[in-house]
Each structure stands twice: as structure tokens, then as C-alpha cells.
Amino acid sequence: MNGKRKFRLGILGSGKGSNMVALADACVSGRIPCEIALVLSDVAEAGILARARERGIPARFIHPGGFRTKLDEASERAYCAALREAGVDLVVLAGLMRILKEEMLRAFPRRIINLHPALLPAFPGLEAWKQALEYGVKITGCTVHFVDQGIDTGPIIAQQAVPVWDDDTPETLHARIQQAEWELYPAAVAALAEGRIRAEGRRTTGWAGDSKKGKP
Ligand code: GAR
Known about the structure:
Layout: E1 7-12, H1 18-28, E2 34-41, H2 47-54, E3 59-61, H3 73-85, E4 90-93, H4 102-107, E5 112-116, H5 128-135, E6 139-146, E7 156-163, H6 170-193, E8 198-200, E9 203-205
Parallel strand pairs: 1-2, 1-4, 2-3, 4-5
Antiparallel strand pairs: 5-6, 6-7, 8-9
The structure holds glycinamide ribonucleotide.
């Protein structure tokens, strides 16, 4: 192992934590030049906290305050302080079911990313796989994007398409999207850690390289 400092991730989630596990496995196997410095959740009994602790990753519940869809001001300050103290280079949202506000966006400019279970800008918001199925699209997928003030509106970094089959249920479709997420998220985080992603306005460049996307 060389002595190079690893890129430090702070992961925020409310759910079972399968994407945190995919990132943790990629860190441990050396597939991505990163380490998970801290996992935070707004849900005390969330699987993401238990699965982090099983792996020896520092993991904390921080109370979200009284709102349902965002953190209250004191709570958002506490999240920022914990991430700063942990020396986090990139804030990685993995199933966080709350919107982040100014405090966090100012503390980590262009250093917060989110994973969304659809091909944005289609189907922003909750249960995007259900929205896609009900709409009747034949292809959906997942998107990694920078977080801005809007809901799932920030500049897109990477996307992966996933087919919708005739006999899909919301559960089977979400499971297929999650398989794609476990590949896409670690790859996108590695691209950011290695400084390959450049952002100019809404457009980012550097994901996978044009040759891999079939450009002659
Ligand atoms: C993932 O499918 C992610 O795309 C979705 O939550 C799931 C978390 O799963 N995120 C959103 O819907 C954000 N609006 P996990 O806890 O197993 O990683």
C-alpha cells in the first residue's frame, strides 16, 4: 500500500444502505481510491448505520428536527460540523430522504452528490421507479448528479440505463435499478476522487470518456 492520502467520503442515508455497502466494498478492495470517514443518518434504526458499524465505519444518528422533508437549521449545522470534523472531501447522499438547504450547500460547494433511481430529468422526487413503471417507459435507469437547491436538478455526472420488462412490478424494477446503482455510484465517486470530472455550468465532462460511449 502506498502512503497516498485517500479521498474521504461522508455518506448520508435514511434506508437500508446497500449503496453504502457497495461503496465500502469498493474502498476495501482498492477499486476506488477512497475511504468512508463517516456515515450519518436521520433514522436511528436505519440499516445503513448497522451495516456501517458491522464494517467498523464510524456511524451516527443525528436527529433531523421537526420537519418531515428537510433537516431543521440546528440539525443541518450539526450534520455539517460532523462532516467537517471527519475531514470529508465529498458528501455522498445514498438514499437520504430529505432535502439539503443553504447551510450544507455553502459548507460543501460542488462537493455533494446524489444518486437518483431514474434517468433525470425524468421522474424526479420520490419512488422514481414506480413513476417510471406507471408512466410506461421502456428504459429507465439511475443518475449521479451534483446537489443544488432544487429537487434532483443539479448537473448530471453519470447515468446508467436499465430496461423495463413487461412483467415488472415496482419491486423487480427497483431491484434491477439497484444492481446498476451498485456499479455506477462507486465508478462515479472514483471519477470525482481522481479529479476526472469537470463542471462548467450545467454540463460536466470526464465521465467514462467519449470513446467508451461509442464516439469514434
Ligand atoms: C436507492 O435506490 C437510491 O437511488 C434511492 O434510495 C435508494 C437507497 O437504497 N434514492 C432516492 O430515491 C433519493 N431520492 P440503499 O439504502 O439500499 O442504498
